[in-house]
Amino acid sequence: MAHATDTHLDDNNQIGDEATGFGKKALGVGVAALVLALVLGGGPMGQQFTASYLVAFMYGLAIGLGSLWFVTIQHLTNAKWSVVVRRVAEIIAANMPVLAGLFLLVLLPMVTGHSELYEWTDKAKVQASPGLSHKSAYLNIPFFLIRSVVYFGFWSLLARFFLKASTDQDSSGSKEVNGKLQAVSAPSMLVFALTLTFCAIDLLMSLDPDFFSTIFGVYYFAGCVSSAYSFLALSLMWLQGKGRLVHSVNREHYHDLGKMMFAFVVFWSYIAFSQFMLIWYGDLPEETHWFHDRFTGEWATVSWTLLACHFALPFFGLLSRHVKRNRKTLAFWAFYLLVIEYVDLYWLIMPSTSRAVVPVSIVDLLCWIGVVGVFVGSAASRAKGLNLVPTKDPRLADSLAFQNI
After folding, report:
1. Which residue of 23, 225, 281, 384 has the fewest C-beta atoms within 10 A of its own C-beta?
2. Distance of CA 357 to the CA centre of its chain
3. What is the C-alpha to C-alpha distance for residues 285 and 289, in angstroms, rounded to an integer?
4. Each residue of 250-271: pLDDT tens digit?
5. What is the largest CA-CA distance in the chain?
6. Which residue from 304, 311, 215 is spatially nearest to 262, judged by alpha carbons?
7. In whole angstroms, how far apart are CA 283 and each of 36, 129, 130, 287, 327?
8. Hey, CA dihedral for 282, 283, 284, 286, is it positive or negative?
9. How many Cβ atoms sit within 10 Å of the Cβ of residue 403?
10. For the chain, which residues make up each domain, given as ranges?
11. Are 372 and 27 in contact (CB under 8 A)?
């Protein structure tokens, strides 16, 4: 809840040359890292590169999708507390076209028939396997390309719509914009849920075409939202370190971001346990083999590490109100959750390429630096010249005065 205490909006509400300089550096590092990863990973068709890049890409996509969900849910619920932090999330979500471009490196091996990750792209394997033949009506390249265009087209258009309408309101001051955004967000949330779910099935679950889980999309969604809240908190702290939003964003807003980080730690744990329990209880060979691969050999250590580090540690670490209201401790847990999300995606993807050992490689790190560098650099460049807070949103005063009680 909120009541009036302080309605001061920072005069320093934009970031200019600093954003451009930082964006160029991040983009440069990202592109250089991807080029080096391509060289060391055997080129765009090499198994090492394609596997490492898929992990990094799904990581960047998780932050983008989580940010788009955040913007959509704020408009859908007519939220007031989040107005001062929403514009930064809108800028991050507007990176969807960039992610669509990065997706081409995932797509290239698949459409050329050289993918070592996706068995269903190999016509010979499909013809030799009754299971793959049975699923070929869905798992085929033409239909996959159509779905991919729908996914990234919808996400890009929705993110652009939200950012443009919000920034236009900075000039017009029209209160009707809020009603328009709320009306669009309701059906958009339904389409968003479907596209995210099917994208997770296409790019993650189909790595093992015999496996299926009815809540796999929800599992990926939980990681997306947890990562987005963590990334948003760190982005706001970086901006405040540059002298922006110093008064507009305060501990009350960080407290709410921390509460949502904690909530989605619990939600991820609930979904992860539910998926495991249902598959264990059903005891179907086509499902249980997926977990068997991850609880044997070196992967067993990673699985138990996830249990402790993706649930137990952040659960108790973020439980205290004081931790969520302290920027240093919140920054630690935000960074921690971003790291553990990468480990989680690594655990989802890499056993499909190496069932006996954990194939850690320098290419993994280079791909992560590459995708994150391009993602962050693009967001920073886009922020130049934009108000970092929706200055004419009629709910701004409530957001500035927000207090947790």
Report:
1. 281
2. 27
3. 6
4. 999 999 999 999 999 999 999 9
5. 69
6. 311
7. 44, 22, 21, 7, 45
8. positive
9. 15
10. 17-392
11. no
